[in-house]
Every structure is written in structure tokens, then in C-alpha cells.
Write a structure and sequence with these properties.
The chain is α/β, with parallel strands linked by helices. It has helices at residues 15-24, 30-41, 55-64, 124-128, 136-150, 175-186, 206-213, 229-235, 244-255, 277-287, 312-324, 355-365, and strands spanning 8-9, 65-66, 71-77, 83-88, 94-102, 105-109, 113-115, 130-133, 162-165, 198-202, 219-223, 263-269, 292-298, 328-331. It contains twelve helices and 14 strands. The strands form three sheets. A ten-stranded mixed sheet has the order 3-4-5-6-9-10-11-12-13-14. The structure holds S-adenosyl-L-homocysteine.
């Protein structure tokens, strides 16, 4: 009997790879579809329960494969219904996954890396450093676990209607694993989410934006936070490598694909830093020709930060200027405050984060 570590985790395989896997063990490729339905529609991880597979296939799957989602280490529920899980992957690494219920939808916010190498100055994940990329199984496994934990509404509707990659990590620096997981979210035999209901958020990895456009249909969000390079560099160091002009070009290219109609820009409002009326006017100039939406996020403080949230009247004034300028702009409601589940507050557990993190940051970003 092979040792456990050598078993292949089927959550790591998107449809094509699962078909290849079955062909490699002398089975017909349609087995991939049967198994996907068991895993993602029925929530079954035990091969014994996959009754349409035949005893000998089930036995050989037991020997060579497993369906191993992350482990839920803890669950917290906010007074507003927001739920946060700490999901562990062994070896001391863990990330946070958040579910945000609203009257007409339920958004699941998932992570793509343990920690993050980009070091954005206003984000607590950045302050923790980077440990490692998540595998495809660890990314799709967060959706699988949350779907199991949440169950269905009384009317049989799924509670998760949208997934956003806005948790820990920079998804475009973990491209292959993220795309495999995205394709399982989109596939009818996976979770079956429509393209507009799966959003990848990036701090502005320009080459990754071009690559994503040609790889899979999902919605794109870009964390902008400043309308000019000098200021953006202080908030998002990656801007030194990919300045705003190049970033905007990649976004224009993204929406030129007929399946990708719009880009959402995220803009965290920080008191006295990026919330002046001039910033709002510059933002209008920058975005007005691009099919886009602007998501204004009140800054969420975390221990040790020197930043504060912009006062409410300044947030409203900012929104008014950009809307008068013709942009579509919403202010994101802060949710799950009492359980530290808001944007930029996710921590998880990051081990080995100092030297390695520095090295990887240099390699990946040149920043
Ligand atoms: N690396 C990706 C995915 C992380 S998304 C990205 O940068 O887009 C996390 C979102 O929350 C980003 O828009 C980020 O800018 C925002 N954010 C991070 N820290 C925050 C904080 N302290 N307050 C409010 N928003 C924050």
C-alpha cells in the first residue's frame, strides 16, 4: 500500500487533468465527470460512496488517490452573520476564509497564498510576510469546506452565490493553481458559478492580467488606491515595477475581450493619504474612458498600523465627486468587524516569513 503522501489529491485536478488521470489508470475519461459530480455536487469525499464507480475502481482509487480538503481549525460568527474560518493545511500553515451574507447574495472571500509577498503598506496580510503558494486543492478546498459548512437555504438554494479572491495573497503570483481552482468554480460539474460571479482581485500584476484574459472568463478587480504613481508606490510597492499607465493599458486590453465587460477598481480610503478631492478628480480622469466600476473601501485598521479610516463626510464627498465625473462608485460596507474579518484584516498563520519572504518578493516583483 503506497504511503499517504504519494496519493494524488483529486481536488488538485481540473476537468482536463482529471480526465488524463483516469486515462492514465486505464479508465474511460467520463469517470472524471462522475467523480466531479460526487465531489462538488454531492460533497462526497469517500470513494466507497461513489456507487456508480464499480468496486474494483473504488478500491484502486483508495490506493492511489484521495479527496482531501483543508481542515477547519476554527469558526467564528459575527453579530452581522459574517462567518470566518481558519483553514489549516498541515505544517502550521493556515489561511482565513470569510462568508458575507447579504439579503440577495452570499459572497465567499477566499485566499490564494499563505501570507503575501507584496507588502502593501495598509494591509495586515502584507505585514505578516509570505510563506507559500496554496495548491489548487487548497484554494478550491476552501469553497468546498464553506459550502459544506453552510449547507443550503430552506428553498434548496446554495448560500454561496459569489466567490471573490480577495483574501490573503496575490492570486496572479500563483497563476496555475489559481486558474485550476477557478475552472472548477466555473465548471458545471464543479460549482457552476457564472463568470461574473467569480472575481479575481489583483494588486496590479500586469503580465498576469494579460495572461488571465486569454486563459479563463472571470471578473477582474484591480486594487488601485491612488490615481498617480508617486502616491501609489507608497501604498502598493508593486507599482514601481508596473506603473499606472501600464496597468491601465492591461485593463483596457482585458475589457476588449467580448466576454469581459468591465473592471472593478478597489480604492481603500485612508485619512489624509489618498482621500483629497484632488485625488477624486484625478481618478475620474484616469478611469472615465474605461468600462469600470469603482469600489470605495473605508480603511480597516489593524494593530500596529499608522493609518486611519477617512471620516464619513470625506468618504461621501469623494464618492460624490467621482460620481459627478461619470464613474459608477459604491462604498463597501464593513462587515464582520467584531471578528476581524474585514478587508485587510485576515491573518491566518504564516510560518517562515522573514528571509524567505524577502527573497521571494525580490524574485517575483523586482520591487
Ligand atoms: N492581492 C490582491 C488580493 C487581496 S484583496 C489585491 O491586492 O487585490 C484585498 C483587498 O482588500 C484589496 O483591494 C486591498 O487593497 C484591500 N485591503 C487591504 N487592506 C485593507 C485595509 N486595511 N482596509 C481596507 N481594505 C484593505
Amino acid at each position: 500500500m503506497p504511503v499517504r503522501e504519494t496519493r494524488i489529491n483529486l481536488l488538485d485536478l481540473d476537468e482536463n487533468r482529471l480526465q488524463e488521470f483516469f486515462e492514465s489508470i486505464g479508465e474511460k475519461s467520463f469517470r472524471a465527470h462522475q467523480v466531479m459530480k460526487w465531489i462538488y455536487h454531492q460533497g462526497v469525499t469517500d470513494f466507497n460512496q461513489m456507487t456508480n464507480l464499480g468496486l474494483s475502481l473504488r478500491q484502486s482509487l483508495h490506493q492511489i488517490a484521495e479527496i482531501q480538503p483543508p481542515q477547519i481549525l476554527s469558526t467564528q460568527t459575527s453579530v452581522d452573520g459574517t462567518r470566518k474560518w481558519l483553514m489549516g493545511f498541515g505544517g502550521g500553515n493556515a489561511v482565513e476564509t470569510v462568508f458575507i451574507p447579504e439579503p440577495n447574495r452570499g459572497t465567499l472571500c477566499i485566499s490564494s497564498q499563505v501570507g503575501c509577498a507584496l507588502n502593501c503598506s495598509f494591509c495586515s496580510t502584507g505585514a505578516q510576510g509570505f510563506s507559500r503558494n496554496l495548491s489548487a486543492s487548497e484554494i478550491i478546498g476552501q469553497v468546498w469546506q464553506a459550502a459544506q459548512a453552510l449547507g443550503h437555504e430552506r428553498n434548496g438554494q446554495r448560500r454561496i452565490t459569489n466567490v471573490v479572491l480577495m483574501g490573503m495573497g496575490e492570486p496572479l503570483l500563483n497563476f496555475d493553481a489559481v486558474v485550476s481552482a477557478l475552472s472548477l468554480m466555473r465548471h458545471d460539474l464543479g460549482f457552476g458559478f457564472a463568470a461574473k460571479r467569480v472575481t479575481l482581485s489583483t494588486a496590479g500584476m500586469v503580465p498576469g492580467i494579460y495572461r488571465l484574459r486569454d486563459t479563463i472568463d472571470v471578473a477582474l478587480a484591480v486594487s488601485l488606491h491612488a490615481p498617480e504613481d508617486e502616491l501609489r508606490e507608497t501604498l502598493v510597492p508593486l507599482n514601481r515595477k508596473y506603473p499606472i499607465r501600464e496597468l491601465m493599458q492591461s485593463c483596457a486590453d482585458y475589457v476588449s475581450d467580448k466576454h469581459k465587460r468591465t473592471v472593478t477598481f478597489e480604492y481603500t480610503l485612508i485619512d489624509g493619504v489618498n482621500d483629497h478631492p484632488d485625488h477624486a478628480r484625478k481618478l475620474v480622469k484616469l478611469l472615465r474612458r474605461l468600462p469600470s466600476k469603482l469600489n470605495l473601501i473605508p480603511f480597516n485598521p489593524f494593530p500596529g498600523t499608522g493609518y486611519r479610516c477617512s471620516p464619513e463626510p470625506r468618504i461621501r464627498a469623494f464618492q460624490e465627486i467621482v460620481m459627478k465625473g461619470g464613474l459608477i462608485a459604491t462604498v463597501r460596507k464593513t462587515r464582520g468587524d467584531d471578528i476581524d474579518a474585514a478587508c485587510g484584516q485576515l491573518v491566518g498563520k504564516v510560518l517562515d516569513r522573514t528571509r524567505r519572504s524577502e527573497r521571494i518578493r525580490e524574485q517575483m516583483t523586482g520591487a
